[in-house]
């Protein structure tokens, strides 16, 4: 018997998730059945969507999320010992998976993802839940296929120092665009400009956002990749050019609101209709699950190549220890991470 631990959400979040909203439960795993595998978790991802979906699932529930696990026992010939698996097994240190079973639905947008870790060509295994995982695929498809950037265009990214935004900005540079990023500290602004090569970065907490963007992009914005929402997005969308394209990939400014999907309780922002109409803007919501898993390797191949060549930096903020998952989670929600927030189990 293998003793495992998992995080169970026992109470719906009210505002910022609290430590006592979770319970770490210890339990024994049964012997493997035919076709099953036992994985030992190596890396766990903390992501903003784990906060939003907490509104939509009845408690108690096992905290879902991406992880990389190493197969340590197997009754499935396609997944021998030593194979690494990326799955939505969540915040647990051991798990039994059946690759032959149909995917469970945690939420209408998120299947139980399961695939072998891509060939990382010597890169850290942690990238399997970061740049060469769901966040990287989100940046790649959400930007390239929804915004359809052209060389010479001006691209704005909010949440630019985060897991997805930092990759979007660098892909935009690779594609020959001018890139402006918004982040929440002077340290992140400096990092975006000096380390990641953004043409301009702006601290939205201290700057006059509308004026600063006007100075940085006097002729307007062609593509906007939105991870934040709120009034910041209103200020940016009001400065879009004719036929501008917007990908809405996140709305982290509202994630800690109690009524996240209740119109009557959400914060209000400036009306955008005049700008959308006059400039014939295309605004599209994007979730990575809109692209089938069979296509994700397209993104992984290019991103791995760019990292290996030095064109893209896949920064990570690493927290050590299974018991520190909560701290990593709320730290990420508070914007303490540079790049991808990951936990080494």
Q: How many alpha or pi helices?
A: 9
Strand content: 25-35%
| Most strands sheet | 7 strands, mixed
According to CATH, the homologous superfamily of the largest domain is NAD(P)-binding Rossmann-like Domain
Give the overall shape, derived from the CA principal axes: globular
| SS class | alpha/beta
User: What is the mean pLDDT?
Assistant: 93
The fold-level CATH name of the largest domain is Rossmann fold
Highest-level CATH class of the largest domain? Alpha Beta
What's the SSE pattern? EEEHEEEEEEEHEHEHEHEHEHEHEHE
The name of the CATH architecture of the largest domain is 3-Layer(aba) Sandwich
Cα separation of the termini:
20 Å
Helicity, as a percent range: 10-25%
How many domains? 2
Radius of gyration: 20 Å
- Unreliable stretches (pLDDT < 50, length at least 5) are 105-110
Total number of beta strands: 18
Question: How would you sum up this structure, described in words?
Answer:
The protein is an alpha/beta fold and 345 residues long. The chain folds into two domains: 2-119 and 314-344, Alpha-Beta Complex (Quinone Oxidoreductase, Chain A, domain 1), CATH 3.90.180.10; 134-288, Rossmann fold, CATH 3.40.50. It contains nine helices and 18 strands. It has helices at residues 49-52, 134-147, 165-174, 186-194, 209-216, 230-237, 273-278, 296-309, 325-333, and strands at 2-9, 22-29, 37-45, 61-62, 67-74, 84-87, 94-97, 105-107, 110-111, 114-116, 154-158, 178-183, 200-203, 221-226, 240-248, 282-285, 316-320, 340-344. The strands form four sheets. Strands 3, 5, 6, 7, 10, 17 and 18 form a seven-stranded mixed beta sheet that branches. Strands 13-12-11-14-15-16 form a six-stranded parallel beta sheet, with helices on both faces. Strands 2-1-4 form a three-stranded antiparallel beta sheet, with no helix packed on it. Helix 2 (134-147) crosses helix 3 (165-174) and helix 2 (134-147) crosses helix 8. The longest helix has 14 residues, at 134-147. The relative contact order is 0.15. Mean pLDDT is 93; it is low at 105-110.
């Amino acid at each position: 018997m293998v003793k495992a631990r998992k995080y169970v959400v026992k109470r719906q979040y009210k505002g910022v998730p609290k430590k006592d909203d979770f319970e770490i439960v210890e339990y024994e795993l049964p012997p493997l059945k035919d076709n099953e595998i036992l994985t030992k978790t190596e890396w766990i991802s903390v992501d903003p969507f784990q906060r939003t979906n907490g509104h939509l699932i009845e408690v108690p529930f096992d905290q879902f999320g991406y992880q990389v696990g190493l197969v340590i026992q197997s009754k499935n010939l396609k997944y021998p010992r030593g194979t690494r698996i990326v799955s939505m097994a969540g915040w647990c240190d051991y798990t039994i998976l059946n690759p032959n079973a149909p995917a469970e639905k945690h939420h209408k947008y998120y299947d139980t993802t399961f695939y072998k870790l891509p060939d990382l060509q010597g890169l850290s295994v942690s990238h399997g839940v970061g740049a060469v995982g769901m966040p990287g695929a989100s940046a790649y498809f959400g930007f390239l296929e929804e915004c359809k950037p052209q060389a010479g265009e001006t691209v704005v990214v909010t949440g630019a120092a985060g897991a997805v935004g930092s990759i979007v900005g660098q892909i935009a540079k690779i594609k020959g665009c001018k890139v402006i990023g918004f982040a929440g500290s002077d340290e992140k602004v400096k990092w975006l400009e000096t380390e990641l090569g953004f043409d301009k970065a702006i601290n939205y907490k201290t700057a006059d956002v509308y004026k600063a963007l006007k100075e940085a992009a006097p002729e307007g914005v062609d593509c906007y990749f939105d991870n934040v929402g709120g009034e910041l997005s209103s200020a940016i969308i009001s400065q879009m050019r004719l036929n501008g394209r917007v990908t809405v990939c996140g709305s982290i400014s509202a994630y800690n609101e109690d009524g996240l999907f209740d119109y009557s309780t959400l914060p209000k922002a400036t009306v955008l209709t005049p700008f959308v109409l006059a400039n014939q803007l295309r605004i599209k919501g994007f979730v990575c699950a809109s692209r089938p898993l069979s296509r994700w390797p397209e993104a992984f191949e290019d991103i791995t190549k760019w990292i290996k060549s030095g064109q893209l930096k896949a920064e990570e903020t690493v927290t050590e220890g299974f018991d520190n998952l909560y701290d990593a989670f709320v730290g990420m929600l508070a914007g303490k991470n540079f790049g991808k927030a990951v936990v080494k189990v």
